[in-house]
Amino acid sequence: MSVVSGPGQVTAAASDDRSVSRGGRLWLYALAILVALSIVRVLSGADDLTSAGTMRAAIIAAIPIALAGLGGLWSERAGVVNIGLEGMMILGTLGAGYYTYYQGVWVGLAGAMLFGAIGGALHALATVVFAVDQIVSGVAINIIAAGGAGFLAEVFFGELEGGGPTQSPSLDRPPTITVPGISDWSGDLAERGWFLVSDLAGVVNALTETMSSFTILGLVAIVGTGWLLWYTPFGLRLRSCGESPSSAETLGVNVYRYKFLAVTMSGVFAGFAGCFLALVASSGYANGQTGGRGYIGLAAMIFGNWRPGGLLTGSLLFGFTEGARLRQGGESVHALLLLTGVALVLLAGWQLYRGHRAAALLAALVGAGSLWWYLATETIPDPFTEMTPYVTTLLVLALFAQRLRMPAADGQPYRRGQAG
User: Fold this and answer.
1) Which position among 127, 174, 323, 387 has the lowest Cβ density within 10 Å, counted as fewest Cβ atoms?
2) What tens digit of pLDDT does each residue of 78-134 get?
3) Would 41 be classed as within a structural domain?
């Protein structure tokens, strides 16, 4: 519920019980997924599927996706589509590589955010001020960033010892945090192979042993965004620009200012995602290291229905498939075929019950194909395991598109004075 007390004076009331129930449902979904993974681990014998190492790799893979999606959330909640997240992430990796080499990790993070903000400001200038088509501008940002980073990498790192025209020297990593006692206890329990208990211990160990400080900052950014955009007057005004900018203007909201700020902030978070890739997921900058994660972040945001909690859930889903691929490759991904097949067959029955025949048919066909592949093979070839995160993205968006609700004015150009 919101209260309008006059021009420019919009206040947000306390949230209703639905936000509490939504948070409870997320925890129930997480527990259900963990139970399903534990069952699959026991049935398939893929012991590394939910190990502490896999969970740690999943978190490292998920955070940059979540940060990129968070950037998209800021932009699209203000009504501006931002497919330039990939380019802004590329700028972030470059900024992290350059500033970390000369000034250290924390200046590197600030530099990455600055480089990402430049990309976001360019997108805002083109789309908000000059009303350039938002898709065209985003594509242009991606192309310019990729070309510019390739050129500047040679300038920055080409003559450095240990560097080269396509990569930086090895860089310092952010500080890590280990919780004494809990990390040792959970690590020992995770190795016992007990149903569900060891799987839960693997998650606890991943969150308490050598966790990067950047991971904690990323989680704080996600939670902070949820509070800022949904529980403050500032967030209500920003979201009103993405729902009905003409109505917001009649209430005294400076729509241009909020849109420009939101798109620039999307670049800041995408730059943070690039910094995470360069300093946590890798040991330095390298050309092309984003690998399409900006697009996957955008998909995670859509899967999460333009909300921080759902965005994080989608990012963890995509991150887990990447982590499973990196740990035991073919064996872990092969076990996921069993989970995918059963889940899709059940989803097909549910969609058929609700009268969504097309979605039910698609889910049934893909589910049956996954089960056949699992039963007919013992492992997955490496070239196919590399496709896992991207195939997961396509499946999730195809099967859950019907429940999505984007901001009403997202992607629509706005010119000052339309309210009149």
Assistant:
1) 387
2) 999 999 999 999 999 999 999 999 999 999 999 999 999 999 999 999 999 999 999
3) no
Is 339 exposed, middle or buried, given 0-12, 13-18 or 19+ CB atoms closer than 10 A?
buried
Residue 4 DSSP one-character state: E
Question: Is 368 a domain residue?
Answer: no
Q: What is the DSSP letter of 304?
A: T
187-211 pLDDT, tens per residue? 899 888 888 999 999 999 999 999 9
In angstroms, the CA 40 to CA 332 distance is: 10
Enumerate long-range contacts of 287-292, CB under 8 Å, 24 or more apart.
287/149, 287/150, 287/153, 287/166, 287/167, 289/93, 290/86, 290/89, 290/90, 290/93, 292/86, 292/390
CATH number of the domain where residue 314 is located: 1.10.3470
Longest pairwise C-alpha distance within the chain: 68
Task: Please report which helix (H) or strand (E) contains residue 212, including its range.
Answer: strand 211-212
Give the Cα separation of 295 and 90 in Å (integer).
Answer: 12
Query: What Cα–Cα distance (Å) separates residue 365 from each residue in 68, 334, 347, 362?
Result: 32, 18, 11, 5
Identify the bridge partners of residue 39 per DSSP, sorted by sequence position.
none
Structural domain that includes position 309: 51-327
Which residue type sits at 341? G
Interval 271-285: pLDDT, tens: 999 999 999 999 999
Count of residues in the chain: 420
Task: Check residue 361 and report its DSSP letter.
Answer: H
Contact between 293 and 277 under an 8 Å Cβ cutoff? The reply is yes
Asked if 100 contacts 152 with a C-beta cutoff of 8 angstroms, the reply is no
- Residue 176: phi and psi, rounded to 5, are -115, 160
In whole angstroms, what is the distance from residue 124 CA to residue 289 CA? 25
| 338, part of any domain | no
Q: Is residue 255 within 8 Å of residue 76, measured between CB atoms?
A: no
Enumerate the β-bridge partners of residue 176: 212
Q: Given this model, what pLDDT does residue 331 score?
A: 77
Q: Is residue 25 part of a domain?
A: no
Q: What is the number of structural domains in the chain?
A: 1
